[in-house]
Design goal:
Layout: H1 11-23, H2 31-41, H3 46-51, H4 57-68, H5 72-90, H6 95-101, H7 107-118, H8 122-131
């Protein structure tokens, strides 16, 4: 079992460290990329986000990829997967309902997309995630 025991004195200390880390990322300094990231994180499509920006799609794509390191579509997929896995791991009840709520047509669509992108099965990934334990020491 993998144990990622982080010895921070409190939850607040972790949050302060993360805030300092994120404030140093260039995304915070670029309003266009920040806007795109926020909109994609809300579940907006890449097409709808870029349609509202008065720049060429190619210029937007290059700027986004230069700063973030991946395409807007790939970023959107990662955000979607992150939210899905948080819900899957927190809600032990109906997994199919959770999958459908995150925009997949059915379970097979989720399984095939996940395996294609991640090069591993969702069951293997889920068991890996359940092995990770992160604990915070409260004072």
């Amino acid at each position: 079992m993998l144990d990622a025991n982080v010895n921070f004195p409190s939850q607040e200390a972790i949050e302060n460290e993360l805030i300092q880390f994120f404030n140093n990322i260039e995304i915070e300094e670029n309003d266009l990329v920040k806007y795109i990231c926020l909109e994609l994180s809300k579940g907006s499509s890449v097409a709808s986000v870029t349609a509202s920006i008065p720049l060429s799609i190619r210029v937007i794509q290059k700027k986004f990829k230069t700063i973030v390191g991946m395409s807007m579509r790939h970023y959107s997929y990662n955000v979607r997967q992150r939210k899905l896995w948080i819900d899957l791991l927190n809600e032990e009840n109906d997994k199919l309902h959770t999958i459908l709520n995150h925009g997949y047509y059915d379970q097979a669509h989720f399984i095939n997309t996940f395996k294609k992108k991640m090069q591993r099965s969702h069951i293997n990934f889920e068991s890996y995630l359940k092995k990770i334990q992160i604990s915070v020491i409260e004072n």
